[in-house]
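Collaborator request, handled under Task 6.
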Amino acid sequence: MIRRSQLYVPSISEKMIRKSVELKADSIIFDFEDAVPPEDKEKARELLSKILKELDWGKRELCVRINSLQLLDSYKDIVAISREDKITCIVVPKAENDLSFLYKATGKSLIPLIETAKGIVKIEDVIRSEGVVGISYGAADLALSLGGDYSFYERNEYIKTLIVSNAKAYDVDAIDKVYFDLKNVDGFRRECEEAKKLGYVGKQVIHPSQVEIANEVFSPTREEIEWAKKVIEAYEMAKKEGRGAIRLDDKLVDYVHYKIAKRIIEFQGANQ
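Structure tokens returned to the collaborator:
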């Protein structure tokens, strides 16, 4: 599953839900949490259920962000989406503990969000939960929980590295946080590029205009694909000759570079 772009769609908006069918996001996250006022939660659940029966999103991953597990509404969300076969993934806000029970109860894959102080401390318990396929975080909620400044946590390299390190340790997707300044296109692209360099595979987005940029940045470039093909060909030829490291374009290439090259080509193939 490719998750270059995960687009949040308010589940209370019929117009936006229907529009999401036309968009090129790899994943759609129908939001029951922040995008829905408390008095409209039940209406959102009913609306999404109705439209899911009418529309076809193809092979794209369809997720729902439920309400916090500390709230009764989250259990109403879980009951509602358990009946929806098209929903294959649950995004869990403010994740702080082992979530295996949720996977066992629903059969849906899980993408927890680290958004609290306890979530940071317990991140390994969260990410080791059965059914977890990816992980992301929320800078605003995290700053609130820690009593810090949002703008600082928005660019905090420790948090970014903590998330991606744990993701890689347990072989799940690291997906970068949302970017709220919709007018700052250059800033969004720059944050995508920085996240990719850290090892993130994609980004959660909040507006259709961000989807194309995220898909572009988190896809291999033409230069990366050409490099990968050269490395694979040269390394596999050298391996037949009993050599484990080679010189390619005046640079040392060994098994690590070969694995990186294979990952690039596999990603390209999965995206075609």
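The cover message to the collaborator said: "Residues 5-217 form a domain with the TIM Barrel fold (CATH 3.20.20.60). Residues 4 and 218 are 6 Å apart (CA to CA). Please let us know whether this matches your experimental observations."
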